[in-house]
Design goal:
Layout (H helix, E strand, L loop, with lengths): L3 H11 L8 E2 L20 E6 L5 E4 H5 L4 E8 L4 E12 H5 L10 E6 L4 E5 H4 L5 E6 L2 E2 L9 E3 L12 E7 L6 H4 L18
Parallel strand pairs: 1-5, 2-11
Antiparallel strand pairs: 2-3, 4-5, 5-8, 6-7, 6-11, 8-9, 8-10
The structure holds the ligand Nc1nc2c(c(=O)[nH]1)N[C@H]1C(S)=C(S)[C@@H](COP(=O)(O)O)O[C@H]1N2 and molybdenum atom.
């Protein structure tokens, strides 16, 4: 029904859930650089490395045996669409990070995806209770295009931080820009402060 989407958008805006400069979408656009990587459960791993006492490598069965978490959140893409009430299933970031002892002075992480994609964030934001390593959304497995078998989900920041096809978390004692941050996107990316580009 035409108008329906706008009504919903007004409702979300009224609830303070529509960040400035965003519009509501009911679809789920697919956006990424490069191609959709192949997934082989026999060789897939998730690596926790960098400034940690001992690096950890989780195989696919080991990862899938971690305690499951569920969260409902809204997502905001820097290309100006927002999608509401997404129900995610996965493993909370705090649960994943518990597998390592952080070294002295860890302040940030660089989250690595397949094919060289990465995104940086403060370690405190990674450990936020809203952050999930997700494998299902709205009751269905993620499609390959949306990051199967695993993507990060950082709902408080623009969606480029939510690395699809995630394969590693590197712990750092300083901030280091990821893929889009090196191309002029904001180093932090808070949609509520419209931190789209590095000079915002
Ligand atoms: N590995 C990887 N993750 C990525 C990207 C990418 O190019 N590669 N693009 C990011 C960007 S810019 C956006 S907007 C979201 C899009 O997620 P979606 O395709 O599931 O909507 O994925 C993010 N995660
Ligand atoms: Mo994006």
């Amino acid at each position: 029904m035409p108008g329906n989407r706008k009504d919903l958008e007004r409702e979300m805006a009224g609830q303070g859930r529509l960040p400035p400069g965003q519009v509501l979408t009911e679809k789920w656009p697919v956006l990424h650089e490069g191609t959709v990587p192949a997934f082989d459960p026999a060789t897939w791993d998730l690596r926790l490395f960098g400034r940690v006492e001992a690096p950890v490598r989780l195989t696919y069965p080991e990862f899938m045996a971690l305690p499951k978490g569920r969260l409902t959140s809204d997502i905001h893409c820097v290309t100006r669409w927002s999608k509401f009430d997404c129900e995610w299933e996965g493993v909370s970031a705090a649960e994943v990070v518990r597998r390592v002892s952080l070294g002295q002075g860890v302040t940030h992480v660089l989250v690595h995806g397949e094919q060289g994609y990465s995104a940086n964030l403060p370690v405190g934001d990674l450990l936020d209770e809203t952050v999930l390593f997700a494998y299902r959304m709205n009751g269905e497995d993620l499609t390959p295009e949306h990051g199967w078998p695993l993507r990060l989900l950082v709902p408080k920041l623009y969606l480029w931080k939510s690395v699809k096809w995630v394969r590693g978390v590197e712990f750092l004692d300083r901030d280091r820009p990821g893929f889009w941050e090196r191309y002029g996107y904001h180093i932090y990316g808070d949609p509520w402060r419209e931190q789209r580009y590095s000079d915002d």
